[in-house]
Each structure stands twice: as C-alpha cells, then as structure tokens.
Specification:
Length: 433
C-alpha cells in the first residue's frame, strides 16, 4: 500500500543530531528559533547523539521507537529534524511516527513562503519549493495505477506520478522564465544607475543581525523589521543622500544562514545579484552574538557562492545597546581606511559615523569639487551636464563658469585631457575645495 501523507499541524517535536563534525553540525538554539519563526508550538526538544547515520531512518531504530512514543504522548502533529533528510528517510519516518516529518530545508522553505510579500519573492519561493518537492512526489499518492483500458477509459498511458512530474517541470520552466525577465529588468535599472554614476550599496549579513532596522534608521523607511529569522525576503532599494558624496542607492537584502540550502541560493539569485553588483557591501554583524565569528564565515561562504566575495566591504557591528562599555566608533587600518563601524541601529547611535565611513570608501575614486571654466569652455560645460555630473552651477565676477561636480576621477581626467590640459594640473588650478 502507498502511504497517504498526514494532514497539517503546528504542535511539533524538534530532533537535533549531536556528536557530528562541528563543521557540518547545526546550532540547536538557531534550530529552535527557526521553528518558532515558522509558527511551530514546540512540544519537546530531543537531542540525539549519533556518529553514524542509518540509510533507513538517519537515526537508530531504537531512537525511532522512543520518538514514536513521545509523539503519541505529546499529541504532536509534526516532527522537525535539524538535518537534511533524503526523500526515503522522510517517508520512512512518517510511517513510523504517523505524523508529518520535516527536515531543515523544508522548514526554511516554509518560513520563506510565509515571509514573501512581492510577486517576485513568491515566485522565487515557489521555484525553490517545487524543486525540493520534485524528489518527494513519490509519497502522498494512493492512485498511481496506470489508467485502465476500455472504451472511454483509455488515457495517455502514464501514471498519476508521471503526470505530476511533467506538470511540475512545466511550472518550474514558467517560473524560471518569469524570474529571468525580473533579472533583466533589475539589470536595466542597474545600468541606469551606473550611467547616472550613482553608487550602489547593499546590506548583507546573517539573518536577524539587524539589517532592516539599520536600513530604516538610515533611510527613514518603514521596511518590516522584527526579532525573528528571515524577516526580510524581498529586496528594498532607497535613495540616500551623503554629505560630500551625493546620492547613493541602499539595498536591504535577504539574510544568510549556515548551510543555506543550495536550492534557495539558486532561486534567489535574481535577488542576490543586487549584492553582487554593488559598489560596496555593508556586512552587518550582531556584535552581541556569541557565535558571531561562525556567522561571519557563513556570510563569506554565501558571498563566494554568488560571486560577491571580492567586492569592497565595510563591517558594521550592530546592537551596541546590548553591550557594556563600548561606544560607537570607526576602526581603521594602517592607512586610515575604514574597516569596521560599531553602532546601534535601534537607538540610532553611530549612524553618522557609518555615513562618514561609506562616503570615505566610495569617494576614493570620485572627484567632488568645483571647476572654474572660462566662457570659451562651453563644450566642456555641456559634456559635464550630459554626464549628469553637475550638482550646482554659478558664475563669478569675471564671468567664469563655476561647476560643482561629482563624477569619477577617470572621467574628469578624460574630459580635461581632451581639451589639451594635463588633468592634475587642471584640477589643481581650477578646483575650489
């Protein structure tokens, strides 16, 4: 007989596997936070010491019997494993427990499904769910027999399972085509920002590090921020004005987590590309988190996977309000370049220091100043306006044109050299700091 999958339920037993290699083991506290974020009512938390995994249940048969009894006593409707289960293991455990079984990937997918707000976010979550489900279609069907012969009963000759797989492949293809359109639209918007020479800055970091709270504090926005994992799924972009630099585009992105399922990285590639195409990454770190070093490593691992590990990065140590004796400050390297900013986004302390550090890092290759041009240099003036580099224009008493500019130094060097001047000499003589 084929197994009919049990119905829904939120009362859950959490099973954590202990005694594994520390590099592949999961954090039990983070596991409980994930379950609460999904809306589960935790009936019991069970830690299983296991060095070797079994092919049938992942855990030993004796522990399976013990958990089966616990499920009945606690009247649990769901058992969640803090580990990746194969489709057959998940199916075997459901038969043994007579309730639904979910692994870590399925739990994260469920949280993502709850959090997605925009059409794009929902498409990305659905894609990840369908690709995860494609290996698990074997369960939950009791009508897999081939369609019967006879007049009026002859069908295409495929089982219900084969039909479902075919329909699933069609839906996955449709979603990928839509996301490809979203990706091209994002790239078009990025090209427009690059033409206007507006730097892009992305907030990245471990989930629940305070990225959305910092984003709201900097941009006076009202992006959803909560003390829960994966509160933000859909990227949000806002324009932010920085002194001595001009406008930048700040992006709030999805948080990372250890062993983030590869299917999620693939599905959210269009979103994560917002980070990989930035001029600067602000790596937001929970300064109060005991395992912040491990979280930093996980963020670097995901950035490497999406090709953003070589981008300029500024570390932002957040949640100083939870620490004693540390005031907001900027840490610099031997050359005086900002490396880290310590602040509290919730209390708004240290935000000006962060803006200062961002302006310093982005302004290294920017010319921000005033050019004094004679009236005969109307062509150069027009080229500056065409580039969108002019912030303000005035005339002095001699009739010279005073242009307050903001553009890459390479661009102003090119324009000046075209007029027959040496760039450094021109800028030194005609820049009013």
């Amino acid at each position: 007989m084929f197994f009919e999958r049990p119905g829904g339920g939120e009362r859950a037993i959490l099973v954590h596997l202990d005694g594994q290699n520390p590099e592949v083991s999961e954090d039990p506290q983070e596991f409980q936070e994930l379950a609460r974020s999904a809306g589960a009512e935790i009936a019991s938390f069970v830690s299983v010491a296991r060095q070797q995994h079994t092919a049938r249940y992942l855990i030993g048969s004796g522990k399976v019997d013990e958990l089966s009894q616990l499920v009945k006593e606690a009247e649990a409707e769901l058992v969640i494993f803090n580990h990746t289960l194969s489709p057959s293991q998940e199916r075997n455990l459901e038969r043994a427990f007579e309730c639904r079984v979910l692994d870590r990937t399925g739990l994260i997918l469920d949280i993502f499904a709850q959090r997605a707000r925009t059409h794009e976010g929902k498409l990305q979550v659905e894609l990840a769910q369908l690709e995860h489900m494609s290996t698990r279609l074997v369960r939950g069907w009791t009508h897999l027999e081939r369609q019967k012969g006879g007049i009026g009963l002859r069908g295409p000759g495929e089982t219900q399972l084969e039909t479902d797989r075919r329909l699933l492949r069609v839906r996955v293809r449709q979603i990928k085509q839509r996301l490809e359109k979203v990706r091209s639209q994002r790239e078009q918007a990025r090209r427009g920002r690059r033409r206007a020479e507006i730097p892009a800055v992305s907030l990245v970091g471990y989930t629940n590090a305070g990225k959305s709270t910092l984003f709201n504090a900097l941009t006076t926005s009202e992006v959803y921020a909560a003390d829960q994992l994966f509160a933000t799924l859909d990227p949000t972009l806002r324009r932010l004005q920085l002194d001595d630099l001009g406008p930048i585009v700040l992006a709030d992105t999805v948080g990372f987590i250890r062993h983030l399922p590869h299917k999620l990285v693939e599905a959210f590639r269009a979103t994560l590309e917002e980070s990989s195409n930035s001029d600067l990454l602000l790596h937001v770190i929970d300064a109060h988190e005991p395992e912040r070093d491990q979280q930093i490593e996980q963020v670097h691992a995901v950035l490497t996977e999406i090709g953003a590990h070589e981008l300029p990065m500024l570390e932002v140590y957040n949640k100083l309000d939870l620490l004693d004796g540390i005031e907001p400050h900027i840490q610099r390297d031997e050359q005086g370049k900002p490396l880290r900013v310590w602040l509290s986004a919730r209390e708004g302390r240290g935000l000006e220091l962060l803006k200062q550090a961002v302006a310093e890092l982005l302004g290294e290759d920017l010319f921000v100043g005033t050019l004094c041009l004679p009236q005969s240099m109307g062509r150069l003036r027009a080229q500056c306006f065409a580039l969108g580099a002019v912030r303000h224009e005035e005339h002095d008493e001699q009739g010279n044109i005073l242009l307050a500019l903001r553009l890459p130094r390479s661009e102003i060097n090119r324009l000046v050299s075209r007029e027959g001047w040496q760039p450094d000499e021109f800028i030194a003589q005609h820049t009013l700091q």
